[in-house]
């Protein structure tokens, strides 16, 4: 008859199972291929420094831009290409 060398009086059976820690947060959805192509074209047309642009959004590559940031990025680059009328006069 085998006796467990470490008897915990059944306490281990009543403890909840330890949760496995997730090593990473879920990645945000990235921009689509069409959105990427539009941004690359605007980056080229405006002569924007791609490294600075990516750094502004906290990504290493433009392709990794979160989808939630696309509208802001598009507006930023479009305004550089075609400044709004109220800023042209300034």
Low-confidence stretches: none
| Category from helices, strands and their pairing | mainly alpha
Distance between the termini: 92 Å
Beta strands, count:
0
Mean pLDDT: 84
Q: What proportion strand?
A: under 5%
**Dominant shape:** rod-shaped
Q: Main sheet?
A: none
Helices, by number, come to: 5
- Helical percent range? 40-55%
Radius of gyration, whole Å: 26 Å
- In sequence order, what are the helices and strands, one letter per element? HHHHH
Task: Describe the protein.
With 90 residues, the chain is an all-alpha fold. The protein has helices at 11-14, 33-46, 50-56, 70-81, 85-88. The protein has a domain at 27-83. It contains five helices and no strands. The longest helix is centred in the middle third of the chain and has 14 residues, at 33-46. It starts with 10 loop residues before the first helix and ends with a helix. The mean pLDDT is 84.
Keywords:
rod-shaped, 5 helices, 90 residues, mainly alpha
């Amino acid at each position: 008859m085998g006796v467990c060398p470490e008897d915990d009086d059944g306490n281990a059976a009543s403890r909840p199972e330890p949760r496995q820690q997730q090593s990473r947060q879920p990645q945000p959805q990235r921009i689509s291929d069409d959105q990427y192509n539009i941004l690359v074209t605007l980056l080229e047309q405006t002569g924007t420094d791609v490294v600075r642009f990516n750094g502004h959004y906290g990504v290493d590559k433009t392709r990794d831009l979160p989808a939630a940031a696309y509208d802001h990025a598009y507006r930023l680059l479009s305004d550089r290409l075609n400044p709004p009328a109220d800023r042209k006069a300034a």
